[in-house]
């Protein structure tokens, strides 16, 4: 019988770029041992994943089906999947008072610049999205190599926070 996957929630303000990239990439790389979700502290009512985020994921061979912008309140409900680790990927979300997460998951903050705020041409903005995707990928590769699904809560939190200082 396979072990229960480690549930990881990536948080950002609008849940349209960085957290979406991290969710899709970890689900792609996690080999069933890790299951990723994403949410935003204050997504707009009509918020959708940034089209450039979806484009760079698709170009990298990462599935985008089912990705959607959602509020972090979805994961604070009793029927929500229990999270083992919650990672903020933007400074705004990291500074906000988070909801109560059932199960008291480990937490960490992994800072990435917002690629959707990069100025210039579409090509320049695509470069920013690819750069962010590659930064997330490098950190996730190291994190996955540490076999986080085998760690207790405190060790998981320490390892996730250690990854914040990589790159």
TrEMBL record:
The keyword Disulfide bond does not apply. InterPro entries: Ptyr_pPase (IPR023485), Ptyr_pPase_sf (IPR036196). Residues 6-146 form the Phosphotyrosine protein phosphatase I domain. Keywords: Arsenical resistance. Gene3D superfamilies: 3.40.50.2300. GO terms for biological process: response to arsenic-containing substance. Signal peptide: none annotated. It comes from the Bacteria. This is Arsenate reductase ArsC.
